[in-house]
Amino acid sequence: MKKFLAQFSVCLPTLFLMLSATAVAQPPTLESLARPGPYQVAYYNQLPSVPEYAAATLYFPANRGTDFGGVAIAPGYTETQENMEWWGRHLSSYGFAVLILDTNTPTDDPQLRADALMAAIDVIRGEGERSGSPIRGKIVNDRMALMGHSMGGGGTLLAANSHSEQLKAIIPFTPWLPDGEFSAINVPTLIFAGEDDQIAEADEHAWPHFQSLSEDVTRMYVEVAGGNHFVANSATDDERLLPNIDAHDLIGALGVSWLKVYLDEDEAYRPLISGELPTAQMERVSRFQLESQ
Ligand code: 9J3
């Protein structure tokens, strides 16, 4: 009887938790996904070193049991991990393992950033196996995505153009690569651009990059009205590299949705990336295109 009671006292709260979680589960909205997600964020930077990049931090959802998809993120020209940090926190709070890297030199070209991103994918997978890794046993090897800013966005596109078979999704933001042509990309691609980007002008970079994608690829182009080159970056102390307007709510919500659908295969998020955005959000976007395959 004592044993039964002990089990009962453990099981009953668990049962209530499960029932209440089910009862209150709301479909995600762009508004809800602008806020931090359900998981506690932890991070570490004692990672195996690789020749393709200098250093990295891996963010992960500390209280998610298993089945993490992985996301590797490369910063832009002269930028560091710090400029991408909000993505690490936001995406891992929704359940992803997110590696943000520092390039070997601040001026590494987009191809070097592509190589760094592919090496980072291997490191994430390796952390799922390494004894002593905080995320051992928790990574799903074939759920990998790439992201990057500017030259890191160019690197994201280059990497996916050569290695789509290793990826499930990509999200370049305000990507920079003159004459970039990415018709071999074969994974769902979400491109963020800024209407007032003076460094990688949307008409010279993000928009033609988007137009170069194959018709067979599910793809979304979101150009933030009034947004500068740094609109999808973290707000840091470096005034040169600051978002000029706060669109992280919309950008973060769409990024989470893209990864939830194409890495986690969670259909609950698909309505958020199907068809046009809600009117209030469309008014914040200067150019929008979605082609779903
Ligand atoms: O990564 C970037 O921000 C690219 C910007 C740029 O103008 O590169 C020119 C060398």
Keywords:
nine-stranded mixed beta sheet, 293 residues, Rossmann fold, 9 strands, 20% strand, alpha/beta, disordered N terminus, globular, binds 4-ethoxy-4-oxobutanoic acid
Write down the CATH class.
Alpha Beta
So, the CATH homologous superfamily?
Answer: Alpha/Beta hydrolase fold, catalytic domain
The CATH architecture is 3-Layer(aba) Sandwich
Approximate helicity band:
25-40%
Q: Secondary-structure element order, as H and E?
A: HHEEEHEHEHEEHEHHE
Task: Count the DSSP helices.
Answer: 8
Beta fraction: 15-25%
Classification by helices and strands: alpha/beta
Largest sheet: 9 strands, mixed
pLDDT averaged over residues: 93
- Secondary structure: number of strands: 9
General description of the model:
The protein is an alpha/beta fold and 293 residues long. It has a single domain, classed as Alpha/Beta hydrolase fold, catalytic domain (Rossmann fold, 3-Layer(aba) Sandwich), CATH 3.40.50.1820. It is 32% helix and 20% strand. It contains eight helices and nine strands. Strand 5, helix 5 and strand 6 form a beta-alpha-beta unit. Helix 4 crosses helix 5. The longest helix is centred in the N-terminal third of the chain and has 23 residues. It binds 4-ethoxy-4-oxobutanoic acid. 4-ethoxy-4-oxobutanoic acid binds next to loops.
Short description:
The protein is of the alpha/beta class and 293 residues long. The protein has a single domain, classed as Rossmann fold (3-Layer(aba) Sandwich), CATH 3.40.50. It is 32% helix and 20% strand.
